[in-house]
Amino acid sequence: MIITNIETVPGKNIVEHFGLVSGSTIRAKHVGRDIMAGLKNLVGGELKGYTQLLQESRQQALDRMVDQARQLGANAIVNVRFSTSSVAQGAAELYVYGTAVRIE
Amino acid sequence: MYNLLFFITLIAVGYLAGTFAERYHYRSIHLREKMFINLPAVTMKTVDYPDDKIKSAELVYGSAVISIDYFKRFTASLRNIFGGTVKSYESLIDRARREALLRMKEMAGDSRMIVNVRIETSTIGRNANKKGVGCLEAIAYGTALTLA
Amino acid sequence: MKYTPRLPKSNVNVTPTSMLREFFVLTLSLLAIVIVIYILLGFAVDLIVPRISTDLETKMSELFIRSVDAEDIDSEWRGYVQSLVEDLQKRCTKLPYPFKVHVREASSVNALAFPGGHIIVFTGLLGKITSENELAFAFAHEMGHYANRDHLRGVGRAFVFITISTFLFGTDSNISQMLAHALNITELSFSRKQETRADAFALDILNCAYGNVAGATDFLKRLPKEQDPGTIGHYFASHPENLKRISDLNKIIRDKGFKPAGKKPLPKIVQQ
Q: What is the model's pTM?
């Protein structure tokens, strides 16, 4: 599965498209990480725990989108966009969407 | 003790009513998705129709605000302690988003295609109530192209 | 670029698990954690409580007892119960507390032992008293809690739990509520042993002060069956079932050979 965030897949021809595909996941961090982050907020710097958590979640969202595209018979997704929002206290939603296409 | 009973009642009512509403909503979503299956919405900006074939281009949008039932909200707040995927919110967001997309398509009328679609989500009403009311808005917008 | 209309076969964005299962798994794990913390706290409290000096306890209690003071009512009872308690303390106990009795207007048939020697008694209890011995027994029972420092154990545990839950969940009240329910239920069964010990202590004091133990069980016998569970104190809800309590008391009276007769009436000022 080829995923791009431009209009095309360079060097390939888009022969058909299947409309919008999307993947999302909502993750909550556990209390331990919260406490560590609270401490880290005193001194600043990267919150490694959070970065890793969001990376994992984003990967899961991507996997879900790819899964959906496969079900439609696509072999590439173009013009992909990410969006992150916090749906509830302490939980973040990672959302990714794009257009499922078949390239040759 | 009465408080506990009250709490259990709320959970049970939340679960039953929430499940019923969700099933009903999904049935409606599936039905309408089939209805609009011939109107594609894509994130691409370019189309391969020649310019003179396109009669009009117009902004279309749709949004939906969906709230979560007591049962799912409680499950989600438990999930907050242990971390991990908040499964109870997944269907809520999925429904909100698909509903928004469908409303956008309804607005597009007899267009051929909706391009450059964007979808956004935001929680609303949380600042007004610190307890975190599970209320969520999804908005979808794009440009509907009508062919001559 | 043609469009092929297709719908996905399954919904990839929703995990196909039952929400009920998720709910029960989470609730049970939370309960397990709470129980473990509760047991650990029990040990911690047993370690810490004997090390808290009465002095420190009195100072700490000053902070919140001020609000209690404001609600005290002024009645004939106040001077009488205060002198009764001081008399009992001076003559029959070695408790280092500066006891102060607060009389409060409430229908609840209850008396509470707060840290720092503050005993709160509700008018509901006073209204049901017929002899001084009965009243002395009720206060001696509360003193028993002070002697065993039960009041600190209960407060200490509740305090730690409230602190933890607000720290973890902040404004989210759902969980804190659930914790509070769970706590209340376990607290009930936990304090039975302490109540029985306090009863035994009270009998000793009563015998020391009056030379007999008349009136010790009177009050319990007269209690109406339909006790409202009360608000904070559970004076009777958490006390062993009255009948069991009465028989326990009678057993101690027999074993120690206390005299069960010779009641002293209430002074005229408080008889209405």
A: 0.67
